[in-house]
Amino acid sequence: MIIYRYIALQVFIGLIIATAILLPLFSFFDLLDQLDDVGKGTYRVEDAFLYTALLLPRRFIQIAPFVALLGTVAALGKLAVHSELIALRVAGISPIRISRAPLWIGLLLLFFIAALEQFVAPQLQQKAISHRAVALEQSAELGRGLGIWTRNEQNILRIGEMLHAKKAADIEILHLDKDGFLLTHTQAQYADIIENDLWRLSNVIVRTFTDNQILSTTASSVSWQSFLNPEDISTLTKPPESLSPIELFRHVDFLRNTGQEADSYALALWRKAGSALMTIAMLLLSIPFVFGSIRSGLGNKLVFAAIMGIAVYLLDQIIANVGLLFHINPAFTALLPGSFLILIANLWLRRIM
């Protein structure tokens, strides 16, 4: 229908304008933050700009719900100011029918975001993190002196530092019996990852614990059958939000199968779905928002929409952190804000019909 195509085009233009305003703004804040580190190690101004540029897809995904809200409010607000929405209402087109056009644009936006989330944003963000760490001469560890910790049923592994994808330094392996008592403690200066699960440990000290004594042996090289492959190690050194949905799903499964805490990674996975719901919710909310204040100016609509977007963002962050703190189901925590806002938008739309 011509009317729906016209509304969809206006919403699409509104989304482009909102992106052109918000994305450079948030990227500017990223750049300011990176410029503080210029001069440390070999980190230069060019590195700060490169880091900011590589984060652009991730920032777009993060601000997509607010782009949806402000872009749709701007587009429909413009139609309202020019009395085009009133003409549509007089022609018998309800707000619910008008909402179909923005919703279709929202679905296209979600497909675009899904492609970025799986194939573009994680790779570029991880490249940005790695490049920055190398320039600042930082190691890929969870905390200075703490290293990377993981385990399976009978082994606890600590990697002090990943020198590169196939070589680690400062290795500790604690082997436990079925009752959880320590049997051996292996310490190695280096580990070369030969195959997916075969490691060659160098400069090794093995301490064996018995009832009466501790036996210590040394070796220049020892082979060890690891329960980790290089992909698992790489995942452990990356922030949860920088992983693709498939990487997160696999890592959550790995953590749960080895009896480890997986809530933070599970929450990061479900929040990607929650962000999609939030984007749809913002699109739907913008329609009754515009109709409910049809006599006010476009500037007022945008100001109120910005305030509402900030409030929703803060609420979403609070709910996520509270859920993680109290070990609430990650799916429930991540999907609750978007689902609730979609319900509110539907009720609001029906009220103004």
From TrEMBL:
Keywords: Cell membrane, Membrane, Transmembrane, Transmembrane helix
Gene Ontology biological-process entries: lipopolysaccharide transport; transmembrane transport
Primary location group: membrane
PANTHER family documented for this protein: LIPOPOLYSACCHARIDE EXPORT SYSTEM PERMEASE PROTEIN LPTG, SLR0882 PROTEIN-RELATED
Naturally occurring in which organism (per UniProt): Nitrosomonas cryotolerans ATCC 49181
InterPro entries in UniProt: LptG, LptG/LptF_permease
Transmembrane regions listed in the UniProt entry: 7-29, 60-81, 101-121, 273-291, 303-326, 332-349
One GO term describing the cellular component: ATP-binding cassette (ABC) transporter complex
Membrane topology qualifier: Multi-pass membrane protein
Cellular location(s): Cell membrane
Entry superkingdom: Bacteria
The protein's name: Lipopolysaccharide export system permease protein
